Structure formats: structure tokens, C-alpha cells
Amino acid sequence: FFFFKQKTAYEISLGLVGSEMCIRDRRRVHGAEYMGIMYLISYIVLIAGVCAQRWSKEKAEEWYAKRKWIVGCNFIPSNAINQLEMWQRETFDLATTDRELGYAENLGFNSLRVFLHYLLWEEDKKGFMDRMDKFLTLSARHHISIMFVLLDDVWNPNPKLGRQPEPRPHVHNSGWVQSPGINILRDLDKQKLLEGYVKDLLVRFGKDDRVLLWDLFNEPGNGNEEKHSLPMLQKLFGWAREVNPSQPIASAVWTGDWRDPARLSNLNKFMLYNSDLTIFHNYGNLDSFRHAYESLKQYERPIICNEYMARTAGSTFQGVLPYMKEHKIGAYNWGFVSGKTNTIYPWDSWQKNYTEEPKVWFHDIYRQDGSPFDAAEDTLIKSLTK
User: Is the distance from CB of 85 to CB of 91 less than 8 angstroms?
Assistant: First the structure.
């Protein structure tokens, strides 16, 4: 009982932070005037709600119960090295995407996690969102819902539009880029530019049944310092709550120990107590995965793992996917069709020299012709999804 009371108080305090964001950038006030306004805002939020608040436990459970087991992968077409190449007008390739979504449908996947990028919106708002709409139309034809990822704190911190680099041979994810990039993330004034990006996407697609969920920020703090990533994360949730999409919003915990709520990092605490669903990443074996799941059950939300499966690190379909189905844990493995991301190579390919295709792929399931890396693995997945 004490823990429940303590958690509720913390959730309320974080809710007020998000609601404050709905108006705090509209004009500057100082001192007693500011504090008076904020006390008034807090009172209004508690009584009427300036912004939508985090989904209740009951709403989250009802939403999840209506859906069959969510299973799919992190998707990028094999001919794209990163998010920019996937979505830019010159390289947006519906034919390749259609073919590879067909592989996903045939495997029994019903959802995909797909990364977006702020620079695409900044350059051409209408064109970018129209391409998103075309992609969603195509995915719906294959009976696949989409989890969109708005920002990403991983890999190259200096993204640039235009022609993207060719892959470095035998190097894992050599061309992936952060969104929005370090120059914006470190500048509080520039961070405000992202408000239009978030709100435009959520207004356009926030009641679209083809979109399953909004993943606001992938692995915040995994490429940049918490002092930059946490304020960005807080703003993202505030802006999203102001739009109030019909789909849940979340951000996944990906590192640290989640067993003791009192010892959570600031980033993990914010994500676990603000996300509508509990989402996490795990690239360990079944014991590691089970431990993570058991640690997260106490937060009393439906649970989705939207990154797993790294064969030579111990995370395999055979090891964890049956367990995920048994407990109805949403499942999105990393990698699908081997291509320009080179994620068949392990993470240590950044330090270790590889000269040929590894005997055991790190990520990915299919070659570009649709043949599986491991036929037994393909059979197992189909036995669980169909």
C-alpha cells in the first residue's frame, strides 16, 4: 500500500511537469508571477486537466486486451542505410518495401517498429507526411500496424540530409544517425523547433488506426548525456500529451536495474512513470529476459519488448520468443532483411575486423530474395505467429 501511494504521488508530480510544458514556452514570466501562475496551472490540471494525462492502468489494460499478441520486428528496407535514406523523396522505395512487408506478413508478423527523422519534416513537411501515409497504406494491405519512433539518441550524432554514405564493409550499422542530432539536443532554444515536428505528426496520424503506438525517443542517454536527453524527453511527453493521440505514447527503458523503484535513474523513472505502456529492450538470454520482465511487472502496465534478438550475444528466437508469447509480451526483434545496415555483423565489428559474412548472423532474418538465414528459426516463428 505504501509503495502504491508513493508511486501515485510521483506520477502526479511528473504529470504536472508535462502539463506545465503545454504553456510554459508561450511567454516568459519571472519570480512570484511565475510561481503564482504555476500554482494555478497545477490546480487546474488536477481539477480539469490542461493537457491529457497518462493513461490509467485500466485504460492501458483494456487497450492491450483488445489486441492479439503483438509480434514483429524493427523494420528498414534492405536498400536503406538509415532513416533518412528510407524516407527521403529521392530514395523512398515502395516496391522494395512492399516486397519485404510481404515477407513479414508471410512470417506472421502483425506489427513493425519504424524510425522517423526530424530533418525530413523540417525540409518538406507535407512531402514527408504524405510518404508516411503511403507507407501506412502499404503496411495496412499486409495487415501490419506500425509503431513509429520519433527521435533516436544512438549512433552518428551529426545527421545530414542528401545522399547518404555507402555502408562500411562488414561494419554493423555504420550509417545510422541520431535524431535530431547533437547540435539541437544540446541547445535548449533549438529544442523548441521540435515541437512543430511532434505535434504535426500526432495531429495528422494521432487517430489513425494504422498506427499502433508512438515511441517518442529511442534509448535516450545512449549517445548523449542525461542532462541533454532528459529535458528533451520531458518536452516530448508534454507536447504529445497536449495533442492527446488515441494511440498510447511511450519510451523504452534500455539499461539499468529496474527492480527497485527507489533506485531508478532519473531517465528510467521518468519513462516508467510517464509511458502509457511499459516498454523495454533486452538482448540477453532467457534468464536475463525473464529477470527483466519480472522486474517490470510491478509497474502494472502491459509490457512490450521492442528490441531483442542478437544471436551471438545469447538472445535468440528459440530462447525467448516462446516465453514472450506465453506471457503475451509484445515482441519486436531487431533486424529483418539483410541489407545496407549490415546488422548481420555484431556490435564489436566497430572494433574488430571482419572480412566475410559471419557464420551466425547477429540480427536479421531473411536475405533479400526472401530465403531465411535459418530455416528452423523461420519454422519456429511461424509456429508461434500463425
Answer: yes
Contact of 174 with 193, CB cutoff 8 Å: no
pLDDT digits (tens, 9 = 90+) for 173-208: 999 999 999 999 988 888 888 999 999 999 999 999
CB 347 within 8 A of CB 317: no
Q: Name the 3-class secondary structure at 275.
A: coil
CA distance 10 to 381: 40
pLDDT digits over 32-67, tens only? 444 444 434 433 333 333 468 999 999 999 999 999
- What's this model's pTM, rounded to 2 decimal places? 0.88
Residue with cell 511567454: 27
DSSP assignment of 215-234 equals EEEESTTSSS-HHHHHHHHH
Instruction: Give 307: exposed, middle or buried? Use CB within 10 Å, 0-12, 13-18, 19+.
Output: buried
Q: Cβ neighbours of residue 172 under 8 Å, at least 6 residues apart?
A: 341, 342, 343, 345, 346, 347, 349, 350, 362
- 135 by DSSP, 3-state: which? helix
pLDDT at 20: 37
